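Good morning,

Both structures are done.
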Amino acid sequence: MDRNNIMFTVYVIRSLKNGKRYVGFTSKGIEQRVSEHNRGCNKWARENRPFRLIYKEFFENEKDARHQERFLKSGQGRKFINNKIPR
């Protein structure tokens, strides 16, 4: 597969169990990745599932996606998400 054709997605999911949020990025389809979280792909996901996708952004390259993921995990990024998607 040609890496130049891969789209990267930065996403935020919210636990329907306790309201916790998770910020991540993926080169997989976003529906597939959310499904993996809901199947309990790791200990944290198993303990906090089910999840609902609340925000996504698409990027053409991994560098920009990782930069935005780091931003959304910062204090300013959390404020941005809170203003964009109120609880």
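Second structure follows.
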Amino acid sequence: MPTRDYICEACGNTRTLPAQVVGKYPNWVPKRCQDCNDDGRRASTGRDKPSTTEALQRFTAGPKTGLFTDGFCEPNPGRGGWGAVRVTNDAVVEERCGGEPETTNNRMELKAIIEAYKMLTSDEQATIYTDSQLCLNTITKWAVGWERNGWVRKNGKKREPVKNLELVREAYELAQLHPSVRIEWLEGHAGNRWNEYADALSRKGTSDQ
């Protein structure tokens, strides 16, 4: 199976996608190479992939109560992980993490939100924080229309299947079962303590698989 060359929009260098990635995602072309993705993450956070303990030591900003979720994939698509932590008054109540050898960033973000919902009873009031605006909009805005249209989405004049449909449906169904739970966006890699912690959990989930 052939590899595929692409040009990174950030550094302008020509990079190569491995044959196994091309075979699994034949139409995908990344915008940035992995080196630039890693450099951007280090620049935005001021650190290189802290552990959960280091995240607690370094960061204090952000909400102190809620459920915090994150997912990542390196490369994207590739090996990824997800993390979800429930916090009350700045203390961990429960946490979960996991990973997959071949996945995408969006799938891991959705999986983290799903696991956060599963920490709650149906009548609880709580807030789930995600740094993925795509996942936030999927659950709170777009899924209702996709469901009404038979789980297809409009792309111009075309009608296309919803990507990651099984995870989208599960997350949306859980949202309906938890009407008192809000989902809010929280900026990622911006020094918010429990977002940083969830990011570290997602990396732990990948290493533990």
